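Hi everyone, sorry if this is the wrong subforum. Our group has a chain we'd like a structural model of before ordering constructs, and none of us has done structure prediction before. Sequence below.
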Amino acid sequence: GVPELPVIAMWPRAFWTKQQSCGVAGVVLVLLGGVLGCNLDRDCSLNGVCRAGKCSCDPGWTGASCGSLAFRPAPVAAGYRNVFPSGSPSPNISSWGGGVLYDNVTSEYFMWATELAGGCGMHTWTTNSQTIRASSRNAMGLYTREAVQVPIWTHEVNVVRGDKGEFVAFMSYNVPSPYPYCHGCTDGSTNPACKKGRGVPEIEDTDPTYMTWGATPRGNWSAPVRVSMAKPEMDTNFAPVILPNGTLLGMWRDHHPGGKHSTPHLVTAAHWKDPASYHWSTEQLFSDHDVPGGIEDMFLWVDGRGHFHALFHIMFDCDNCGGHAFSEDGLKWTWGGTAYTGVVQFDDGTSFEFPYVERPHLVMGPDGITPLALTNGVKPGWGVDGDQSFTLLRPLAS
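Answer:
Right subforum, don't worry. Here is the predicted structure as tokens:
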């Protein structure tokens, strides 16, 4: 008969293959994800280390394979959220996610976020988007708006540190904007006259990725420089990391192959400041079996052991979920699955499931590698046609 499960858990790998013909293969497959635990750090999603067959997760991560973000209850007043339920006396300013970096000179956290100008909502993202800078002494916020960093039209900003400590922003960019600015918005919701399908032509963004950088968050930044093809088929969601030697490794997306859905690819550069050195791969990072639908809104980072990680917005199965992938070298990636959902527990004892949860960014501590919180662009379903949005922040367990 089949041995007791704890005995199978001790069988060597060669025995698993030999015994498949004896009818225990199915049992072994179950054990590989259960009783066996882990053999390598890769079995822990590179978010922890494998010790005695069990994953010991890094701060901010949980689960048998360390593949899920570990949240603490979120403060209601956190992130960048000037959005309140419709009818509130407070004005709403809609935003759509923001990345945060710590400045060890001023001991402040700075957020660069996409904001919808003119009091409009997410229906105007292709016409009213601009990049703003906000700050907070506390990683959780609330973040206080300081200035427009890059004017309309800019969207989906991703800010990273350069090899000399620079603050480097990458974004979809078309300034001055050629698009019809939407007027007459109120309460963070779009004027119905501006909405698609009401005599307004649909605008799909095919603007290139530009970069701009500065030595300090508030200082003078460089003139924006184009780094991507002149007219991509869609907004690239460009997301890089800059390594200590100045080389760049990142991801961008389009509809290849087959034009079916959003598909990420690798991008590399010999030096991040040299646009001519950028190489844009069109090879798929993940198989259709592992990722059968679209994924977008990439965010990349390198952990304390030198491993590469990425978060994504999942566009199939669970539209308000985020996925995680990992890599030992930044070139060959493994899809880890769902890392979080749109269900948020707040510190006042309430909970809410956001129907739209996109644009993920991790907030790292002063060491640059310890995750403290996750930010997302979210739409709660408030306002006219539900297009109010804000930048949600959820703290992570230490």
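For your construct planning: The CA atoms of residues 196 and 202 lie 6 Å apart. Residues 1-35 have pLDDT under 50 and may be disordered.
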